[in-house]
Design goal:
The chain is of the alpha+beta class. Helices cover 52% and strands 16% of the residues. The strands form 3 sheets. Strands 1, 2, 3, 4, 5, 6 and 7 form a 7-stranded antiparallel sheet that branches. A 3-stranded mixed sheet has the order 8-9-10. Helix 3 (79-89) crosses helix 6.
């Protein structure tokens, strides 16, 4: 029975005739025989109807198609065809070929297996060449199996055809010289031509999915718009809460600072009062000693000869001075202030000492260089890292800054405050109930958009005084240290400076680790 065909199926029918013609032409040229191929009417067949066409033994070549046609189809020859073609391939005499056709035994066929498979290879090669030139988007044909025998007792297992399935069959009749004409043909299962329909179905499904997603997105945007209209009031409340929290913190700091100042003034006043009392006591003691010395002088004067009475001042003054000095040498005042010479000597020592910070236990001075206090193990990141990735790196390294660049050259620097200002405020736990996907999206911002650049740097021999001046003027807390080629060799943070100041204090040990910024939330 005939069947209506369109598209790739129609092209395949026309190219099938061309493929059989090329096959016949190749056999004729190679073995010097005359061949003629006639195409018959194509029909829709089943395994049952094919059994009527090919009652005896048959050779079935299974072909895997890729490209515009996708799947497996079959090329089939009847018993006469496989015996004639295999005999010609092995160049048997025509009388032997005719005898084999007449006998038609399985033994005759078994001895020609390799030749029959070679016929299938030549036929598939002819088909591939014709379809490659004539069918758009054709991939290639590959022979996957050759069955020789009776396929109809178990067609699914032997040649891959289900007994209930319907397929397109294109029959041909071939005549070679004076040999009997034999039948052959091509079996096209419907699945071979389903690829185009499947692709269109997939495209339709994708289109429907995209439309559904667009509708869902429109609904979400409408919902977000409604939420956005309500959000300003919430933002105002949160802003007020944050400002109140900040004011409370500032007030607490100011109160603590005022209390510390008052405590320091009270201590200073107490010390001043104690010093004044000690000074008054010292003066009082000195006056008492002076009065005692005067009394001693008066007693000595009463026992002196009358001829010396006329010049009492010449003898009394030195004796009085010597008595006072002796008294002072014998009983020095314990609370008396240092003599002027001792004070000058102390000041001289302070002037001649290296410029340093207060406290004898500190071994660092303002002349200390960056290379003496810098950290050589610095954290690096990539400009395309996300905010979330940068946060995780900084948390793992327990640092407050991350350098951005490659091969030791700086592109920028990211601080904890840079990240805090980039991400949405709704990511904080206290605002969790207002959190939306758009807030989570801020974690995927690339750090190249928030990093600080250009970066302020210092050299290894930069002094601590210059470092402190730089930090105070610029407000930065981390200064990368670069060599003459501008490659990073380390970094100095305010915490490195604190660690250096505390490293010599026996009561405040940092255990060899430079304090860093607290981990990010």
């Amino acid at each position: 029975m005939a069947t209506s065909l369109t598209g790739v199926q129609s092209q395949a029918i026309g190219l099938s005739k061309d493929a059989f013609d090329v096959f016949c032409h190749d056999i004729s040229g190679m073995f010097g025989v005359g061949m003629e191929c006639k195409q018959q009417e194509n029909t829709a067949e089943t395994v049952s109807s094919l059994t009527e066409r090919f009652k005896k033994l048959a050779a079935v070549n299974s072909v895997k198609a890729e490209g515009a046609m996708d799947g497996t189809f079959q090329l089939i020859f009847d018993q006469e065809g496989l015996l004639i073609l295999s005999g010609i391939i092995v160049m048997l005499p025509s009388t032997n070929i005719l005898q084999r056709i007449k006998r038609g035994t399985v033994t005759d066929i078994d001895g020609m297996t390799d030749a029959i498979k070679e016929v299938g290879n030549m036929l598939v090669g002819s088909w591939d060449k014709v379809f490659r030139e004539g069918l758009e988007k054709h991939g290639h044909f590959v022979q996957t199996d050759t069955f020789i025998g009776n396929p109809w007792d178990d067609p699914q297992e032997k040649i891959g055809l289900g007994e209930d399935g319907e397929f397109l069959f294109i029959p041909y009749q071939i005549t070679i010289d004076s040999y009997p004409a034999f039948n052959c043909g091509v079996i096209f299962p419907g699945a071979v031509f389903d690829k185009t329909q499947t692709e269109e179905k997939i495209r339709a499904e994708v289109r429907a999915k995209l439309e559904a997603e667009a509708a869902e997105k429109a609904g979400l945007e409408a919902e977000e718009k409604t939420e956005a209209e309500e959000k300003p009031d919430l933002e105002a409340e949160m802003k007020a809460a944050i400002e109140a929290e900040e004011r409370a913190r500032i007030e607490a700091e100011m109160k603590a600072e005022a209390e510390a100042k008052m405590k320091a003034e009270a201590e200073t006043e107490t010390k001043s009062k104690a010093l004044a009392e000690r000074k008054a006591e010292t003066e009082k003691k000195a006056e008492a000693e002076a009065e005692a010395a005067t009394d001693i002088k008066a007693d000595d004067a009463g026992t002196t000869a009358s001829e010396d009475a006329a010049e009492p001042q010449q003898s009394e003054t030195p004796e009085s001075t010597e008595g006072t000095e002796a008294a002072e040498d014998a009983e020095p005042a314990e609370d008396a202030e240092p003599a002027a010479g001792a004070v000058s000597e102390t000041i001289q020592k302070m002037v001649e000492s290296p410029a340093g910070l207060p406290g004898e236990h500190f071994q660092i001075s303002l002349a200390t260089c960056a290379k003496d206090i810098m950290q050589t193990d610095v954290l690096w990141g990539n400009a395309d890292d996300s905010v979330q990735q940068a946060t995780e790196k900084m948390q793992q390294a327990d640092v407050g800054h991350m350098l951005v660049g490659t091969e030791g050259l700086l592109d920028g620097i990211v601080s904890r405050s840079d990240i805090a200002s980039a991400v949405s405020v709704y990511l904080k736990p206290m605002f969790a109930k207002w959190r939306r996907p758009t807030d989570d999206a801020t974690l995927q911002i690339r750090i190249k958009w928030i990093m600080t650049r250009p970066v302020q740097t210092i050299k290894p021999d930069t002094s601590l005084a210059e470092i402190l001046k730089n930090m105070r003027q610029s407000g930065v807390r981390c200064l990368p240290v670069v060599d003459q080629q501008d490659k990073v060799v380390g970094s100095v943070t305010v915490f490195d400076i604190f660690a250096a100041l505390l490293s010599g204090d026996s009561g405040t040990s940092t255990a060899g680790k430079t304090p860093q910024a607290p981990p990010l939330e």
